[in-house]
Amino acid sequence: MNKPYVLYEHKNKVNGKLYIGITKDVSQRWSYNGIYYKPDKGRQSAFWNAIKKYGWDAFEHKILIKNLSFEEACYLEKEYIKKYHTSSKKNGYNISPGGNGGHVYREHPRGMLGHHQTKEWSHNKSLEMKSKSKNPMTNGSVIWGINYEHPKGMKGHHQTEKHRLSMKRFRGSKHPNSKQLRITFPNGNIEIWPTMSMFNKTIGFYKVYELVKTGKEYKVDLKHIKTRDKEKCIKYSGCTFSNH
Question: Closest by alpha carbon to 58, among 13, 94, 92, 8?
Answer without folding.
Answer: 13
